[in-house]
């Protein structure tokens, strides 16, 4: 086996001026074959027969290369590397921000799923409760009918005994006929509603699917020396073409979420003016208000008519029975438009945000943190406050309206969502959650929900984004 050359040839240390083979000899020559400095004695020994020249002859050729390296490195390479180093601060910040956003998205989706589960639980419990009530009514009626049948049979037995003991032949015959053709029959046992619940013993797969799709890639990969380079172009701050090509080989980490299907957005458009309240008509148009202006729009948001008024109106509602317009203003007044004039009906203790008139001419008025039902004289028969299913920030109803099955649709301003409660005040479901606050809601005759979303415009309580939502209500059985 050959001996390594490092064990045969002594190594010269950097900066060493004398020969490693011949102690004390100056390195005045350069061996072109071995590419190393040599001393005069090397010419007749180690480097005998090699082409050599004096070192002083080749150094002028090397100096421009060194100067060019210094110039290029200082002006371009080091500047570029400095930018790369500085960019790591942005990368660290972006990395933190990216995963904070992903975490927030995941938490929001988890909250949505919790809300959906709460909604499904509330709907199922409501169905159970309703079936229990219906079964109770059937059982009580059946019991009453059986008790009545029992009494009738007892009376008939007494009549039969009396006829046998002291009745005439005619009375006995008639009693016999009554037994053969009774005027009443045994009550039929009712068919009760039944329900069953089979819990999912292994919900993990469905929970993962409901949560969304998580895709990650590129983590832990690094570029090799073969596909990494430092730009030497004059376009400082931009990677070279070779670097761009190599970086495309490493995909960025991406997380994608597929949300569960919710309420369908049928149409969406921007209103030409701010909207404080919205009231769809029976012919597909809609009345909107903006403090002192009422505007009639078509389904696409085109202005048909404008009406100015003096009072500062918060919300409007059409009575389904009298077809008169009711309004509430910033001074806590509830008024009805009669013969072209606003007539005061009653006042509220808190500022009314929204109003809805029922078929029985009650006024449903939304105020901070609660909704109350008033008679036309201002009496308060009932008040709705949010149940635990509508958890979140403090409940602040921006608008309220009835749908065709008697449920109340409420704009929950603080929680950026629209919720559905039963006419009896039970929480049913979250209809829609948005990135903007719901300012006004209305339902047309086809049960399409018109919702106005927006941000706070100074002190204006209004929005300008209109969304038409097709949602599924919960009918009272």
Residue share in β-strands: 25-35%
Overall mean confidence score, pLDDT: 79
Helix percent reads: 25-40%
Strand and helix order: HEEEHHHHEEEEEEEEEEEEEEEEEEE
Low-confidence stretches: 1-8, 221-261
Overall structural class, as computed from helix and strand content, comes to: alpha+beta
How many helices in DSSP terms? Answer: 5
Total strands: the figure is 22
In what order do the strands lie side by side in the largest sheet?
A: 5-6-7-8-9-10-11
Q: Terminal Cα separation, in Å?
A: 97 Å
* Overall geometry: elongated
**Rg over CA atoms:** 44 Å
Sheet with most strands: 7 strands, antiparallel
Structure characteristics:
477 residues, alpha+beta, 5 helices, 22 strands, elongated
The gist of it:
The protein has helices at 5-8, 55-166, 169-180, 204-211, 241-247; strands at 29-31, 36-38, 52-54, 264-275, 277-280, 286-289, 291-297, 303-318, 325-329, 333-338, 341-347, 354-357, 363-367, 370-374, 382-384, 397-402, 408-412, 417-421, 427-433, 437-443, 448-454, 463-470.
């Amino acid at each position: 086996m050959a001996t390594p050359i490092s064990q045969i040839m002594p190594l010269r240390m950097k900066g060493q001026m004398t020969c490693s083979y011949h102690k004390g000899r100056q390195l005045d020559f350069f061996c072109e074959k071995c590419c190393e400095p040599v001393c005069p004695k090397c010419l007749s020994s180690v480097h005998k027969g090699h082409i050599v020249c004096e070192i002083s002859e080749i150094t002028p050729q090397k100096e421009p290369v060194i100067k060019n390296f210094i110039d290029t490195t200082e002006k371009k390479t080091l500047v570029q590397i400095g930018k790369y180093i500085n960019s790591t601060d942005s990368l660290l910040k972006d990395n933190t921000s990216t995963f904070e956003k992903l975490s927030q998205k995941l938490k929001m989706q988890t909250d949505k799923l919790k809300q959906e589960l709460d909604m499904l639980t509330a709907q199922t419990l409501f169905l159970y409760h309703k079936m229990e009530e219906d079964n109770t009514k059937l059982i009580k009626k059946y019991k009453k009918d059986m008790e009545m049948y029992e009494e009738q049979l007892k009376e008939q037995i007494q009549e039969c005994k009396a006829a046998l003991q002291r009745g005439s032949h005619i009375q006995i015959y008639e009693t016999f006929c009554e037994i053969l053709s009774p005027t009443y029959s045994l009550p039929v046992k009712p068919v009760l509603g039944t329900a069953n619940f089979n819990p999912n013993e292994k919900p993990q797969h469905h929970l993962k699917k409901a949560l969304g799709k998580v895709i990650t890639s590129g983590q832990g990969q690094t570029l090799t020396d073969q596909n990494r380079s430092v730009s030497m172009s004059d376009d400082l701050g931009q990677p070279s073409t070779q670097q761009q090509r190599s970086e495309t080989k490493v995909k960025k980490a991406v997380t994608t979420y597929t949300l569960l299907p919710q309420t369908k957005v049928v149409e969406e458009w921007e209103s030409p003016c701010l909207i404080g309240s919205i009231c769809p008509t029976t012919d597909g148009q809609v009345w909107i208000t903006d403090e002192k202006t009422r505007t009639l729009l078509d389904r696409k948001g085109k202005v048909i008519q404008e009406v100015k008024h003096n009072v500062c109106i918060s919300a409007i509602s059409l009575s389904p029975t009298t077809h008169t317009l009711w309004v509430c203003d910033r001074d806590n007044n509830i008024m009805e438009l009669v013969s072209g004039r606003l007539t005061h009906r009653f006042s509220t203790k808190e500022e009314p945000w929204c109003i809805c008139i029922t078929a029985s001419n009650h006024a449903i008025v939304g105020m901070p943190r609660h909704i109350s039902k008033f008679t036309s004289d201002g009496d308060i028969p009932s008040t709705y406050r949010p149940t635990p299913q509508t958890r979140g920030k403090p409940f602040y109803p921006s608008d309220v309206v009835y749908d065709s099955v008697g449920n109340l649709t409420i704009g929950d301003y603080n929680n950026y969502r629209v919720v559905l409660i039963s006419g009896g005040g039970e929480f049913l479901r979250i209809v829609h959650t948005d990135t903007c606050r719901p300012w006004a809601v209305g339902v047309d005759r086809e049960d399409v929900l018109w919702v106005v979303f927006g941000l706070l415009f100074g002190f204006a309580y209004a929005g300008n984004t209109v969304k038409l939502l097709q949602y599924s209500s919960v009918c009272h059985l």
